[in-house]
Amino acid sequence: MWSNVQILTGAPVFNVQLLLNGISVGAIFALIAYGLALVWGVTSVKNLSQGDMVMMGGYCGWELSKHGVHPIAAILPVAAFMFVFGWIIYRLVIRRVIQLDLFTSLLATFGLAITIQQSLNHIFGPEVRTLRSGLATISLFHGKVDITEIRLVAVALCILVAAAMIVFLRYSRMGQAIRATAQDPRAARVLGVDTDRVYSLTFSINAALCGAAGVLIAMVWVIQPFYGIAYSVRAFVIVTAAGLGNFSAVIVTALFLGVIEQYSGFVAGAQFQQATIVGLLLAILIVRRLALLRHRKALQ
Amino acid sequence: MRKRISSTAQAVAAAGALAALGALPLQAMADDVIQLGSAISITGKYSQEGKNASDGYNFALKKLNDAGGVKVGGKEYKLEVKYYDDESTPARTAQLLERLIGQDDIKFVLGPYGSGPTKAAAPVTEKYKIPMVEAEGASRSLFTQNYKYLFAALSTSEQYLSPVIDLAAELAEKEGKKPGDLTIAMSFENDPFSLDVRAGVVDRAKHYGMKIVVDDKMPRDLSDISATLTKIKALKPDIIVFSGHTKGATTATRQMKEMGVNAPVVAMTHCESADLVGKFGAAAEGILCPTQWAETLKYQDPLFGTAMDYYKAFLAAHPEYKQVPYQVAQASAVIQIYADAFQRAGSLDPQKVRDALAATDLDTFYGHIKFSPEGNNISKPMVLRQIQNGKYVVVAPTKYAADPVVFPRKVSM
Fold first, then answer.
1. Can you list the domains of chain A with their CATH numbers?
2. Has the ipTM of the complex gone over 0.95?
């Protein structure tokens, strides 16, 4: 473990590699977490099928590429398809559980997760699949640092989506309605906001983001019908650590955790990568709780 | 009521007639037939693999019986198998073995498919002191229980990647280097199978005094191994070893290419099930992959001839197969092991056959068979194949290899 730290101090160039990888990993997770935070904040439904919608997006991209569509060109149509899928799911399932208690909505989205997994397994089979972006690897520092262009595409897409969402939420009429609904659905309804439309739009946007992330994941890593859960868990960790209602914090947290994961994998070994992330979440929650207690004491 | 009586009467009459008619031939058949029994997966998640195994059993049986069967104590016997479907569930395997031994009076058992069902079957055969020879359960844990009646034709999981270390040592010596100077970077998934594989690698590395510089364990959920690969890149090891089922093989091959990571020797399990060549083409070149058996090996025996003869004969008999999976070949070898043991035992007493099995020292088209006291086959090495020009070519052990290994591994970055 100590010898691994010595590599980093002895050859600082490897820090660049870890940072680049960490940021690109974080960017993909940011896309997924962003959608989750949006749905969570606006509808207060915790979508347990988040990762499975990501896998579904990946398989849609895989299916398109079988018909000759380049995977990168597939991102947009898949996002559009998933937008429609999200809208249908909202009409069929989410709408009915939004007003109900937490456990009903958890159960509903959990059921959705299982349905998506099994359908993917049934349609596409259990094999591990990948997509080839055909993009090259950029080599820096005499081959000591390598970064694939597809990861840069992921980072660019993450920035683009984040910027678009911020502009949309802040300046468009619908964005304002979404924010109003997130703050207080009843008050928003009283003021004439069609909250049902807000909810369905939010859920559809989330599904579209998942779809885009899924195609990226098929190009950067692998997809398999049952691998969605890992992405659900990570998205929950990011949103919980970032806190609700703060969308730029979600992105910063996702990138930060991506980098931390790389460093812990390098220094302590791959077996500690996820443990570090979850440990960090625990620490954040404890610190936040302590801060909250202090705040309450001050109020008394 | 009347109908029932009449049907009962008919049944009795039929049975009587059958007994009268068939007494002689039945008696004769029972006399010169050795009944084997197996609970194998005909339905359920292992149905494909179960079919492979039973096809292998049946193919060897037919060949053996056509060649005159086995001679036990001066008398010729034919072999026959009684199958039950274990539905791919270990609990059912155990029940069916109770039935095979308890009700059907089977004295010799052929293994089921998979480590799980084999684990369930072994305590039953052990209880009744009935020998079981299996070829489809590779888990190391089967051979740490001190079973006396369990024998396995295949190599166990800890042998999957240890030949890589032997090969690397051999190559180093050829270049005038000391094997002890080599460094190994490895990453294994955190599951029983992969950790078995890891134990074998660690054991061989210790034997040569090689240094393990990276020893990561991948969680099941991990989809990105770039942190491990960055470390490997920094340390420039001589040998890189991965095992993490199809996901591990896919991720490792993709990210090694993306990050420009390479070593003179690169090996991983599950190359074929992950379809590395189909997924990554040139990036998969030079990777070493273990397999239990390959048709290009120079093994042979009097019954089947060479491994290639077996391969061709099986494909001729089973045109539905495109190639012969090793699961088929090792099942056939089990029949040969039994035939050999019956002949040497000179008796059909399960205890005597068991002792003969324990003393097996047999050349087959599948490889040499010799059991350790725990029952696993210690003399057949795992075979290493290397991906050369998109094909899997046997390169080690060098004694049986068809082609030379491409060393050091080169890959177009």
1. 2-299 (1.10.3470)
2. no
Low-confidence ranges of chain A (pLDDT < 50): none
Q: A250 — phi, psi (to 5°)?
A: -60, -45
| Rounded Cα gap, residues B131 and B353, in angstroms | 8
Contact A220, A154 (CB under 8 A): yes
Burial (0-12, 13-18, 19+ Cβ within 10 Å), A276: middle
Both tokens of A188, joined, read 């928003």
Which residues in chain A have Cβ-Cβ distances shorter than 8 Å to B279? 130, 132
**Do B258 and A17 lie within an 8 Å CB cutoff?**
no
**Both structure tokens of B235:** 């340390």
Query: Which residues neighbour B294 within 8 Å (Cβ) at sequence distance 6 or greater?
Result: B307, B326, B383, B385, B392, B394
Contacts of A259 (CB under 8 A, 6+ apart): A18, A19, A22, A23, A26
Inter-chain contact A265–B228, Cβ cutoff 8 Å? yes
Q: Is the dihedral of CA B187, B193, B195, B197 positive or negative?
A: negative
- Tokens for B43? 């339905």
Residue B20 is predicted with a pLDDT of: 45
| Inter-chain CB proximity B217 and A270 less than 8 Å | yes
pLDDT band at residue B24 using 50, 70 and 90 as cut-offs: very low
Helix (H) or strand (E) holding A294: helix A273-299
At B36-54, the pLDDT tens digits run: 999 998 877 677 788 889 9
pLDDT in tens, A12-36: 888 999 999 999 999 999 999 999 9
Quote the CA–CA distance of A15 and A25 in Å, as a whole number: 15
Pairs of CB atoms within 8 A across A/B:
103
And the tokens for B48? 């494909």
DSSP state of A61: H
